[in-house]
Every structure is written in C-alpha cells, then in structure tokens.
Amino acid sequence: TFFIPKSMLPELPKDLKELWVVGEKELPVRHPLLAEVARRIALPEGISAARAFSVVMSNLSRRLTLGEARHVVRALPPDMRPLLEPSLLDRFEEPERFGRDELFARIARDLPTDQPESVAREVIRTTERYLSKQAFKHVRSQLPADLNRLWTAPV
Q: In whole angstroms, what is the distance from residue 155 CA to residue 141 CA?
C-alpha cells in the first residue's frame, strides 16, 4: 500500500487505484529544496511547496521520454522522489509535444495559480541546483528552446 494525495488519484490507472491510500494532505516531505521553493514563491493559499514542485516537475516530465523522466526521478534526493513517481505511471515512452504556453496552462489548471510562469521558473531553477550536471544536461537536451529558457545554466 502506498500513500498519495487525493488530488493525484485521477492520474492513476484504474487497476492500480486500490493499491494506494488516499489522503487529504500532501506527502510529508521536508527537504531544503522545498524550503527554498517556499521562500522564493508566493504560493496560493493552501498550496504547499511540495504540491508546487510536484505539479511543475510532473508536467515538465511529460515533455521528456519516459526513460529520461525516470532518470530525473532517480537523480533527485530520495525523499523527493515520491513527489514525482506517480507521474511515471500510465504514460508512453515517447514524450508529449508541447511548449511554454501549454506548460503554463497545465500548471495553472493543476495548482491553480494566476502566476504559472513564475511558479514554473522558480521551481525549475531551484530543482536545477539539486540535479547532477549529467541529469541536467540530459533534461535540457530533450526540451525545446522555449522550455530551455526556464533554466538558468547553459547546457
């Protein structure tokens, strides 16, 4: 049995839903990455840094191949991985094709926020500091130019 937030239940395959314990609150993750996200972004009331991280990075991971998305999850600190692991379920190996505007629309829908670009930019830039150079380079190699501009370091 695994715990997931109630908001993520619709993303699970129907035949796996009974394996999960659904909760009203976010996963209890405490990590410096999340503390930094919380300091850098004025999040909407009721939205935690863990939820913002999960929404942004899960949506961004859909733009990567499944293999690369798995690589990103494995490159994260172990206590951060459960926030992204559900995004690896119920998807194909090939990435979805979308750019900045679609990413921001997905983030605004899932959080909700009227500032999806600033949330995306801060989550991505903060996460960048916690990824290895190799993982960072691999992610950037799969993103179109408009999404690459959300990162700070050159490839």
A: 8
Greater confidence, 22 or 62?
62
CA distance 49 to 52: 5
Q: What is the pLDDT of residue 61?
A: 94
Q: Would you give the DSSP letter of residue 26?
A: -
**Token reading at 154:** 């050159």
Measured between alpha carbons, how far is 57 from 153 in angstroms, rounded to an integer?
17
How many angstroms separate the CA atoms of 68 and 74, rounded? 10
For residue 103 the two structure tokens come to: 């990413």
* Cα torsion through 50, 62, 65, 69, rounded to 10: 10
Instruction: Kindly state the tokens that stand for 120.
Output: 């995306």
In the chain, where do the E strands start and end?
Answer: 2-5, 20-23
